[in-house]
Design brief:
The protein is α/β, with parallel strands linked by helices. It has one domain: 3-Layer(aba) Sandwich (Rossmann fold), CATH 3.40.50.720. It contains 5 helices and 3 strands. The protein has helices at about 10-15, 20-40, 55-60, 65-70, 80-95; strands at about 1-5, 45-50, 105. Strands 1-2-3 form a 3-stranded parallel β-sheet, sandwiched between helices.
């Protein structure tokens, strides 16, 4: 089996006025790593992805100034796409990823490097 949690870079970076959001996203990491240890004996994997700013309705709802500040903080200089996030999920769900468990993988254009 495969379990893939979708968290957020807020789990690593936090965010002004987003304590509840960052806490819930951080909690997914602890839960996933606990489950990864518990389910490993059954050959199930549990991983977490951390999307950054992604071009979705939610991401487009930010005020333009805030959205631009996010984009300016991304080393790759743009928002991610749904397809880029989905391709990682597809890989982690595949047999090819059967030896990856307990991983926390950012999909954020480099925002969380060094954290």
């Amino acid at each position: 089996g495969r379990v893939i949690f979708c968290s957020s870079t807020a789990a690593l970076l936090g965010g002004v006025g987003q304590g509840n959001y960052a806490a819930s996203k951080s909690g997914l990491i602890g839960l996933a790593r606990t489950l990864a240890r518990e389910l490993a004996r059954k050959q199930a994997t549990v991983n977490v992805i951390l999307p950054g700013l992604v071009d979705t309705d939610m991401g487009r709802d930010f005020p333009e100034k805030v959205r631009q500040e996010f984009i300016d903080s991304v080393p790759l200089g743009r928002a991610g796409t749904v397809a880029e996030v989905a391709s990682l999920i597809t890989y982690l769900a595949s047999e090819e990823a059967r030896y990856i468990t307990g991983a926390v993988i950012p999909v954020d254009g480099g925002v969380s490097m060094g954290v």
